[in-house]
Structure formats: structure tokens, C-alpha cells
Amino acid sequence: MKSSLLLCVALAISLGLVLVAGFPRDPEDQEYVLVNNKCQCVTATSKFVPSKENPGEEILQRNIRIIVPLRARENISDPLSPLRTTFVYRMTELCQKCNPVEIELGGETYKAQQSTSCNEPETCYTYNRDKCYTTTFPFLYHGEMKNVQAVLTPASCYTD
Questions:
Q1: Secondary structure of 27-76 in HEC code, one letter for each residue
Q2: What does the alpha-carbon distance between residue 135 and residue 126 come to, in Å, rounded to a whole number?
Q3: Is the pLDDT of residue 117 over 80?
Q4: The dihedral of CA 67, 68, 74, 77: what is its sign?
Q5: 4 band by pLDDT with thresholds 50, 70 and 90
Q6: What are the C-alpha distances in Å from 106 to residues 3, 13, 117?
Q7: How far is CA 152 from CA 133, 155, 157, in A?
Q8: Which of 25-34, 55-64, 121-130 has the highest mean pLDDT?
Q9: How far apart are CA 5 and CA 85, in angstroms?
Q10: Would you tell me how many other CB atoms lie within 10 Å of the CB of residue 105?
Q11: 140 versus 26: which is more confidently predicted?
Q12: Residue 139 pLDDT
């Protein structure tokens, strides 16, 4: 019981530091990328800037950039589905890290992940260029109707 509690505390601390730390956007810039979600077109950054009230003091400034795809469909894999009119952004979902991380604790290696809701499908507002998307459509060929599969993101479906 004590070792599992210790593991949970160590995991929370290590993953919390990874989440807050981020990575620099540019080596010379002090702006750190906290979230870069290509599926929902969101980038969140943070940097320290001089305070307007007290120039000798620095405050943390967070910037959230959201690009709303104007011609996004409810189902991005179906070109005939209606246009999407509602876009929902939850920082807790954007910040979750579902890839398991190996940590060493007490001489043993454990796999852990930050979020427990990683099995739920992510709502994408545009294509993730790293994923292959396909759809089927009816195709009339010599008087016969066939369902043909078509690739929607060729660059990610076919390797060079």
C-alpha cells in the first residue's frame, strides 16, 4: 500500500512537471508550448513578461491560439455530412497526455499515463496530418454500382 501511494505521488509530480514545463517554440525565444493539438487546431503557449504595474517583476502570460476551420464537417471523414457549427474546447482534454511514460521508481520500471479518460475518442475538427483518413462512396462503373474506398489524406496514407 505504501509503495503504491509513493508511486502515485511520484507519478503525479513527474507528470505535472512535464505538463507545466512544456518546450520552447524557438531556442532563442522564452515562449514555451504547453499544448499543440493539431486535431482541434489549438496551440497554448506561456512566457514570462515584465509586469505593467511593476516593471521589475515578471508575470506569466499564457496565449491560446485557436484556428477555427470554417468548412469543417460534423464527420470529417464524410464529405456529405453537414457543416460543423459548434466547436468545444476543454483545456483539461487538450492537456491530457495519453502516451504511456516509463518511470523508474525504487529500482523498478513502471509504465504510467497522466489521464484515465484516454479510451474516449477525440473529436477532431480537421484532419490530423499524421493519421490516414479514408471514406467509401458509391461509384457507377459499366452500369454497376460499387462502393469504393477513397483516401482523404494521401500524404499520411502512402509512404514514399
A1: CCCCCEEEEEECCCCEEEEEEEEECCCCCCCEEEEEEEEECCCCCCECCC
A2: 15
A3: no
A4: negative
A5: very low
A6: 9, 16, 27
A7: 5, 9, 9
A8: 55-64
A9: 45
A10: 14
A11: 140
A12: 87
Over the Cα atoms of the chain, what is R_g? 22
Would you call 82 helix, strand, or coil by DSSP?
coil
Considering only the C-alpha atoms of the chain, give the largest distance between any 2 of them, rounded to a whole number of Å: 78
Neighbours of 114 (CB within 10 A): 19
Q: How confident is the model at residue 86 (pLDDT cuts 50, 70, 90)?
A: confident
CB 68 within 8 A of CB 83: no
Q: Which three cell numbers stand for residue 69?
A: 476551420
Task: Supply the pLDDT for residue 63.
Answer: 92
Look at residues 65, 64, 46, 69 and name the one whose alpha carbon lies nearest to residue 128: 69
Neighbours of 94 (CB within 10 A): 18
